[in-house]
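If it is no trouble, can you show me the amino acids of a protein and the C-alpha cells describing how it folds?
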Amino acid sequence: MKTLKLFLLLVFIYTNTNAQLDKGNWLVGGNGSYTSQTTTFDSGSKEKQDLISIKPNIGYFLKDKFVIGASLRYEKSNSFDIYGGGLFSRYYFLEADKAFNLFAQIHYDYMNAVSPVDRGDYSTASNYYGISIGQVVFFNSVVGLEFALEYERGNSVFAKINNINAVIGFQIHLEKK
C-alpha cells in the first residue's frame, strides 16, 4: 500500500514536466505484449496460438520528436521459442511540454523460431513488419509509460501471420549533456 501511495504522489508531483524529445537525446526501454493469433499455413490448415512477447529497445533522437533505434525480441508460444532483432522509427505528435503524448511507430524484425519440442532441432526464420499508434504518459521529464495498438504482418517458409497486439511499454528518455 505504501508503494502505491508513493507512486501516486510522484505522478501528482510530476504531471506538468517536460519530456525529453529533443534532438540528440536517447530512448531506452522496452515493451511487452500478449497476442492470440491464428496462423494460416500454406497447406490451408489453421492453428491458434497464444504469444507473450518482450522487446527491449534503444533509440536516438535524430530530430526533435523523431527517433530511430534497434530492438531485441523474445516470444514464447505454445510450440516455439522465438528470438530476433530489428529496427524501428517513431514520431511523437505533441509538444514536449505535455504530460502525455501521442506517437506512431513502424518497425521491421527478423526472427528465428526454434521448436522446444524437438530440442532445438527444428527452426525457421521469418520477417515481421508492423505499425503501431499509441499514447505515452510521462511521470516526469524522463520516464514514460506507453499504451499502443500494433498491427503486424509476418511471413515464414510455412505461413503468413497477421497480428493485432495490445502493447504496454516503459521508456526512459535520457537527456543529452
